[in-house]
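Could someone model iron/sulfur cluster with this protein?
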Amino acid sequence: MEKDPIGYVLARNKTYCNYCPGYCCYRLPGSTLFVRAEDINRMARHFGISDGEVRRRFMEGKNTFKTRDDGSCILLANERMCRRCTIHEARPQQCRDFPYDKPCPYLENPGLLDIIQPRVEQVLLPANRCQDSSQP
Ligand code: SF4
Ligand code: SF4
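Reply:
Sure, complex below.
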């Protein structure tokens, strides 16, 4: 399939992320977000709680976050589309680095989009959208 040259460039330089529903915040078979001790400590300082409390509230096992039934990261505000990662300033290093200065694989791979798009569309239903406070 021919690549969309505009999407290709935008996904690479992360500008596209500002308009993307956050495909990479959903767990897929064979892919798991890796959360390091430094990431947990950054979050602890962000919330003003202990590292252990971060682990208790958000971690599944030692090295990744819990996910919801739809596969979304527990820290994704998936009920609305205006602010997605609830810890954007304190997010893990892997979330910061992805897609590692390469074209985003979620946008390039129709198979991945097929898996995630139905989940994303659930949160795009009118009842789940942000209220626009500028409207009367
Ligand atoms: S890295 Fe890819 S999937 Fe993640 S927000 Fe950016 S464009 Fe979307
Ligand atoms: S921590 Fe934030 S950026 Fe990282 S997967 Fe979760 S919601 Fe997405």
